[in-house]
Specification:
CATH class: Alpha Beta
Radius of gyration: 19 Å
Helix content: 10-25%
Order of helices and strands: EEEHEEEHEEHEHEEHEEEHEEEHEE
CATH superfamily: L-arginine/glycine Amidinotransferase, Chain A
Strand content: 15-25%
Shape: globular
CATH architecture: 5-stranded Propeller
CATH topology: L-arginine/glycine Amidinotransferase, Chain A
Length: 362
């Protein structure tokens, strides 16, 4: 794995050969009650509106079947796979500032843990329901810390998430999709600049460059905190005006190998922000259209999980098996494409990239 057998944690980008990864679990996952951070994320016509409580036993079993099969496939390719430890998500949680009816789950590790070099950083999170989610990963991180003398375990300052962290009346059934797009184009998001907020899934790693989406879950103060925390990195803020619900970057902007990215054609990177990629010789292609017209039932994410792929080395990429257009595009780009049935796992927090977080890449 490394010349130094004690090196456990080391990952600098999204495409080098993957050797060790965390894959999430669906056990005990809940749809939490509404809260200021989640309300604007759920479109008016979504079947998620007004629904909360534990996910059904049947859907959990189906999701775990696909997550376990994905983990097994990775292991069969020589990749070490660890899994988080679920806690009891279906319980009321509270801090001195607020209380909330339940937690969420531990299916998308990518949202919570950011691996940069030899550091694993616990993100702030901007949902109250996900405030305690880091606990699912603590047993693994403790093991890595004990085994690897060079590993750094860091936690960003836990936010208070009081009402002042969110804009009042940001969610309104009277706001049309056109008005919502106008709001996000002006960078008018649900979160305020009260305190640093970021989800790990808003960060893409390009070696010494970190590309961070400014949107619903990550504010400018969060990006500024990352900039100060990683003084040896260049931190670039990006935004995608075509996305009415800008939550995480990895169904919008996906690096496939050094020099090649795909971008959601409905959420194009502004021309001004493209310059840094062009200047460094990166090609940005429009991602293939999704194969589905709508997401699975009770799914937070958009149909563009089609481009939420996991690169396991610069020539090999995992794509959801029914996303035939994305499979074909990557095949034509010269990749060895591994079709992974994963649509039953989508409602639990996202696609193949979301469901993992790196521990070690060569």
């Amino acid at each position: 794995m490394s010349n130094n057998p004690k090196t456990v944690v080391n990952s600098w980008n999204e495409w080098d050969p993957l050797k060790h990864v965390i894959v999430g679990r669906a056990d005990g996952c809940c749809i939490p009650p509404s809260e200021p951070a989640s309300d604007p994320k759920i479109p008016i016509d979504s079947d998620m509106r007004g629904v909360h409580g534990p996910r059904s036993v049947e859907t959990v079993a189906k999701a775990n079947l696909q997550l376990d099969a994905f983990a097994k496939l990775l292991e069969n390719r020589g990749i070490k796979v660890d899994r988080p430890t679920p806690i009891t998500f279906n319980q009321e949680i509270r801090t001195p500032d607020w209380q909330h009816g339940s937690m969420f789950g531990c299916m998308p590790p990518r949202d919570v843990i950011l691996t940069v070099g030899n550091e694993m950083l616990e993100a702030t999170m901007s949902y109250r329901s996900r405030w305690f989610e880091y606990l699912c990963y603590r047993p693994l991180i403790k093991t890595y810390f004990d085994q690897d003398p060079g590993m750094r375990h860091e936690s960003a300052p836990k936010p208070r998430l009081t009402g002042s962290s969110y804009k009042d009346n940001y969610l309104s059934d009277s706001i049309s999709i056109e008005e919502r797009l106008e709001m996000v184009a002006k960078k008018n998001f649900v979160t305020t600049e009260e305190e640093p907020l970021f989800d790990a899934a808003d960060v893409l790693r390009f070696g010494k460059d970190l590309v961070v989406q400014h949107g619903f879950t990550t504010n400018l103060k969060g990006i500024n905190w990352l900039n100060r925390h990683f003084p040896d990195h260049r931190v670039h803020s990006v935004n995608f005006p075509g996305d009415p619900y800008p939550i995480h970057i990895d169904a919008t902007f996906t690096p496939l190998r050094s020099g090649l990215l795909i971008n959601n054609p409905e959420r194009a990177l502004p021309e001004e922000q493209k310059k840094i990629f062009a200047k460094n010789g990166w090609e940005i292609l429009d991602a293939a259209r999704p194969a589905h017209n709508k997401p699975p039932p009770l799914c937070y994410s958009s149909v563009w999980l089609s481009m939420n792929v996991l690169v396991i080395d610069p020539k090999t990429v995992c794509v959801e098996a029914s996303e035939v257009n994305q499979l074909e595009q990557l095949d034509k780009l010269g990749f060895n494409v591994l079709p992974i049935p994963f649509r039953d796992a989508y409602p639990f927090g996202g696609g193949l990239h979301c469901s993992t977080t790196d521990v070690y890449r060569e």
